[in-house]
Amino acid sequence: MLILNKTAGVFFKPSKRKVYEFLRSFNFHPGTQFLHKIVLGIETSCDDTAAAVVDETGNVLGEAIHSQTEVHLKTGGIVPAVAQQLHRDNIQRIVQEALSASRISPSDLSAIATTIKPGLALSLGVGLSFSLQLVGQLKKPFIPIHHMEAHALTIRLTNKVEFPFLVLLISGGHCLLALVQGVSDFLLLGKSLDIAPGDMLDKVARRLSLIKHPECSTMSGGKAIEHLAKQGNRFHFDIKPPLHRAKNCDFSFTGLQQVTNKRIMKKEKEEGIEEGQVLSSAADIAATVQHTMACHIVRRTHRAILFCKQRDLLPQNNAVLVASGGVASNFYVRRALEILTNATQCTLLCPPPRLCTDNGIMIA
Ligand code: KG4
Ligand code: ZN
């Protein structure tokens, strides 16, 4: 290919690198596709090693993920040193897989984005040191990413959402309600005073020994509870939602976990079984816990909607509530939130379940 060298006023054959630079300046890539800025995202904050290559218009060019769920289910929870080792064992392969799927050469990346907080320090460290090494090798810019901001903004990949909107982040490590006023402008309205809802579900699932249940043995605690709850009767027990008199938007899940544990112990006595065996009423307990958790989440979110509308922080009509994080992939919770948003003239938006749980796309 020939390009005009204006200063010399003559035609010359440029190097391949110059051709690419020239084409890139016009956002054009040889072949069929347009070249946008392309970011590699890397996520290792908890128990998923994930990577994705996304362009600036939101096209996912390649993605890969390794979940540690099965290993941690066997050890009865996440052991940070085990998670760290598994991230170390997999990160190279996962990043390579995401890049290969995208057919992007590492040198064509515009930047590398990586979760730097919050999360398990040992897990975060693996992603961070891998990324910094890559950044050094490829001489690319590094973009530090806040894990919760990434969860909150993922919806902009699938829907056109204007600021401000309300976001409810419910996962295994986090629980918060915030008003999103810009890409990194968040007003925190409420948070969990103790554990996160996913953590509570994981603990209840473990106490119910759902790993021994043939239908749930490979599922995360929250997924196992959702699965079993479909077969259960939520009216079998009556548990009051926590903090129901608190005049704020905070959450609490420890009390719910403790009351549920007491119920489980009582049932074990009645059924004459030991801890570690699956109760015949496990599905009823799952349905009750899921229902009570959903009621609590909806009540606190309702308060946040009213607060924002009273202060004109959100529009009176068609305000958007975004629910994200692992627990937001729960359809019972989504349905409960939908009832709330219908009643308050809001619109509920949830990323598809695979984008609710941790992934590399939201980081990229
Ligand atoms: O967002 P995420 O993948 O990781 C964190 O940042 O925590 O969320 C994982 C959490 C786990 O506690 C898991 O039990 C829960 O989300 N979870 C669910 C469901 N799928 C995953 N909870 C309720 N229902 C589900 N379907
Ligand atoms: Zn997360």
From TrEMBL:
Alphabetized Pfam families for the sequence: TsaD
CDD domains: ASKHA_NBD_OSGEPL1_QRI7_euk
Gene3D superfamilies: 3.30.420.40
SUPFAM superfamilies membership: Actin-like ATPase domain
Domain Gcp-like positions: 59-364
Keywords noted in UniProt: Acyltransferase, Metal-binding, Mitochondrion, Transferase, Transit peptide, tRNA processing
One function term, GO molecular function aspect: tRNA N(6)-L-threonylcarbamoyladenine synthase activity
Source domain of life: Eukaryota
Named cofactor requirement(s): a divalent metal cation
UniProt GO BP: tRNA threonylcarbamoyladenosine modification
Keyword Acyltransferase part of the UniProt annotation: yes
Protein name: N(6)-L-threonylcarbamoyladenine synthase
Species the sequence originates in: Mandrillus leucophaeus
Lineage per the UniProt record: Eukaryota, Metazoa, Chordata, Craniata, Vertebrata
